[in-house]
Write a structure and sequence with these properties.
14 helices, alpha/beta, Methyltransferase, Methionine Synthase (B12-binding Domains), Chain A, domain 1, Rossmann fold, 327 residues, binds cobalamin
Length: 327
Amino acid sequence: MSTRTNPTLHSIGVVSRRTGLKPDVIRAWERRYKAIEPRRSETNRRFYDDEDVARLLLLRKATLAGRQIGQVSHLSTEELRELVEGDEAAIARAPRGAGTVLDAPEDGPLEACLSAVENLDGQALQLHLERGVIELTFPKLLEQVIEPLLVAVGTMWQDGDLRIAHEHLASSVVRGVLHSQMSNYVPPTNAPSIIVATPARQVHEMGALIVAAVAAMEGWRVVYLGADLPADEIAAAARLKGVEIVALSLVYPVDDPKLNGELTRLRRLLGETLPILVGGVAAQSYQPTLNQLSCRFVGSLGRFREELRRHRVGSVESRGRGSKTVE
Ligand code: B12
């Protein structure tokens, strides 16, 4: 689609100014509620026509009248228009001071965080995340805000809606918050320990960091080694700390011929029995090697939690029977 030369198509910035809706709200309404379907240029940028702008204005008015976006997003533009006209007439008839809703509904924590990222405002992002911990608790913040925030920032970067500077700012603030929250989970003295890392040449770190946070919340002592670590270093740390599990995150590349060698070396250094759990979007593409080396592919954070719980029960039982834990 040739959008650049077509003056009847508008960028998200123009639509934002015409509707008074922040760009991240417009994107969130599209992604989460399918409220609007913009066209895409060859470079995957969003473009909107006048009808889209009118629809967004109606959606804004409906939410300003106190309606939830999820309840109105599926309506046709005509139905929306009728609804909004009805609301406006009712509001005009209401006695003065009857509590008509004239302010925009307050942004949720995810929208507030995205807005802070868009404005390259690290301090505001940090504040929203810290407030989120208080209002939601850390586990819920992780699930409802941090994970979707990182994914949204990633998608917006891919779409050309954010720059790499935005991603770096978001990653750096989130990293700080995750580390500081993890340090609040003091494991019991007999807690099992786990190493979390990404192998050599796997530079994407945020997935590993989230996995580390999940393990900390599950009561494990976490030895977090970060990204891009050679097998020898992971194995040395595992030996020094006597860990019960090594968890690895694989995100990119999906076809590193040297990774198979790294994993083979790691398995040899760790011995045959120490569980190696491997997850992340690239993990499945190394499945034959993982199977061969008895590394367990873990497809989701939920499954990861289950694995940790199962292992914990198993290791308590085997301690009870007097057998040694793997070191
Ligand atoms: C941030 C980012 C970067 C940052 C990383 C910063 C950092 N320190 O982590 C930087 C800028 C360094 C980067 C670099 C590159 N990146 Co990049 N990056 C991203 C981006 C935008 C977000 C990644 C992220 O943090 N996601 C959020 C986390 C939470 O998600 P996640 O890692 O997938 O983890 C989740 C799950 O996978 C799972 N999980 C992960 N690990 C584990 C482990 C276990 C045990 C379990 C159970 C679960 C689990 O849990 C997590 C939570 O749900 C993605 C796009 C995207 N939408 O994901 C591209 C992306 C991953 N990058 C990509 C590319 C191509 C690159 C570069 C090659 C770009 C370049 N041309 O230089 C380089 C790589 C250089 C290299 N040497 O490898 C591609 C990969 C494409 C592919 N798969 O083939 C992506 C998908 C973007 C794209 N579509 O083009 N990148």
